[in-house]
Amino acid sequence: MADKKKAGAFDIRIVIATLVGIYGLVLTVLGIVEKQPEIDKAAGININLWGGIGMLVFTAVFVLWARLRPIAVPIDSEPADE
């Protein structure tokens, strides 16, 4: 029976969550400091703020998913050149 190791930081879900999280954080900060004339251009909805919050929620769901259901990579104990 082969041993298993968690993918950890190399899990694609963590990479995607990190990228979306950084962009979500930037949008959230921009949404907080946005001037009212810019908000009025989008029918009075602060698109940056709501988009950033949505991305941060997406990031939290992906990280939670990766933590609850980690990918197990089998470790081969036999040499590959047989």
Description of the molecule:
- Helix 1 (12-32) packs antiparallel against helix 3 (47-68).
- The protein is mainly alpha-helical and 82 residues long.
- It contains three helices and two strands.
- The two termini are 18 Å apart.
- It has one domain.
- The chain crosses the membrane at residues 12-33, 45-66.
Q: Topology, pairings included?
A:
Blueprint: E1 3-6, H1 12-32, H2 36-40, H3 47-68, E2 72-75
Antiparallel strand pairs: 1-2
Helix pairs in contact: 1-3
Short synopsis of the structure:
With 82 residues, this protein is mainly alpha-helical. The chain contains three helices and two strands; from the N terminus they run βαααβ. Helices cover 59% and strands 10% of the residues.
